[in-house]
Amino acid sequence: MTDRIANCRILGEIGSGGMAVVYKAVQEPLGRLVAIKALKPSIAMDSQFAKRFEREAHFMASLQHENILHVIDFVKDGRSMYIVMEYVQGIDLYDLLEHTPTLPIEVAAIIALQVTRALDYAHFRGIIHRDIKPANIMISKQGEVKLMDFGIARDDKLSDLTETGTGLGTPSYMSPEQILGDKLDFRSDVFSVGIVLYQMITGLKPFVEDDTRTVMQKIRLDRYVSPRKINSTVPRQLERILARCMEKMIANRYSSTQALIDDLMEFLAPRVPMNYNARVVMYLRDVGVMTDQEADAILNAGGPRGIWRGPKDRSLLPHVALIQGLMLAGVLAGGGAIQAAAGNLTWSPKSFATRARGAVVPERAGYLKVVVDPWATVYVDGQKVMTTPSAQKIPLSAGSHFVRLVNPFFRELSREVDIRTGETRVLSESLEALVDSEQADVAENP
Hints:
CATH class of the largest domain: Mainly Alpha
Shape: globular
Strand order of the largest sheet: 1-2-3-4-6-5
Largest sheet: 6 strands, antiparallel
Number of domains: 3
Mean pLDDT: 81
Radius of gyration: 25 Å
C-alpha cells in the first residue's frame, strides 16, 4: 500500500471492490479526513473500466448536493487514477441492514426520501444512477444520507460506456427494463428505490431466486409479496408508495422523482415531528452504531432550537410538554402560582416535592427512559410529560407508575412500570398501526 497520494497521507484501507480500493487519508494542508478511491493497478489505463472510473469522478464533481458524496479532487498520474472524496463517518445501509435487518418505518422512509432527493437533483441534470442499492447509500453519524458510486451512471449528453454490457448493475435491485437492456430513464432509479425501501421495512428483498426462476425473471414477471404480509405494521399509505415505485410498466410509475418526494414527505409529516436527521441519529444510537455521548453531542449542538426543528416547526414540542408538566408540579407542591422563564428553567429531582400519585419526584428518585417506534406522547400517571423521540430521562418516585403512549395514527398503549431509587428503567415499545378506516376516524375525532 502506498503511503501518499498527491497531498494526502494514507491512514489505511477501508474497502475494496472489483476495480478500486478505498483508503482513509488526511489531506495535510487542511488537516481534514478524506476518502480516496484508487483504481487497482491491475486495471489498464486505456480500458473501459478506467474510462468509467474517470467518468464517475466527473459525474460526482458536477453534482453538488447535500445527499450526494462530494468529490474534492481527481488525480491521474499515468500509472493510476484517484478520486479524492469527503470522508463520511458512519455506516452504509448494507452494513446497517446486516446489523438490524428491519428499520423503523419512519426511519426507512427518511432514508428513501433523502436518496430520492439526491436522484431528483441528478435526474434534472440528465444523469441516471443505475446502481441504487444499500451498499451505495451511506448514513453519517450526523443523520445525513449520502448517495455514492456513480460508476455506471449514464449521462444523456455523453456516449454510453455500458451499451455492450447491459448486465452492469446489481441484479436484485434492477428494474425490468434494465434487465432487458432497454433504454433507461429516471423511472429505472425509482424502481430501485422501491426495492431498497421494501427491504428496509421487511428485512427481505422483494425478488429472490428460487428453483423455478432467477431473480431477473422474477423482477420481470412476478409480483412481490405484499410488505404488510411480512410486517403488519407497514401503513397502507407506504404500501401504495412502494407499489407505484415497483410497477412493471414504466408508464405506471411516478411521473417524476419530485412526485415520489412529495408522497414520502406527506407520509412522514404526521409521524416525525422533528428534524429528520435527528430521528436518524436517535436510531443509530438506539441500535448501538453510536454511543449515547456521540448522539447527545450532535443532538444538543444547536441548543433548544437547533437540530430539533421539525417540518412543521414543532421543534420545541418535547421541551414544552416537559416544562408544562414541571410547572404544574410546582403549583401542586407549593399550593400557588409559579412563574418561570422557559429559556432559564433548570430542574433536578431536588427541586420537586412528593406528590401522592408519584408523577413528581422526591429527592431520592429513579428514572424512566421511553423509546417508542415510531413516536408517541407520553403520559405518566395521567400527566403529559414529553413527546418522543427524546433522550430525556423522566425522574419518578420509587414505586409503580402508569404510562400511556398516544399517537393518533397508532393504537394507544398503557403499561405499568416499577421504578427503583437510583436506577433507570427503559420502556421500549412498538406501536401497532390502525387500519385506514380507524385512522380516518381518529383524524376526524382526535
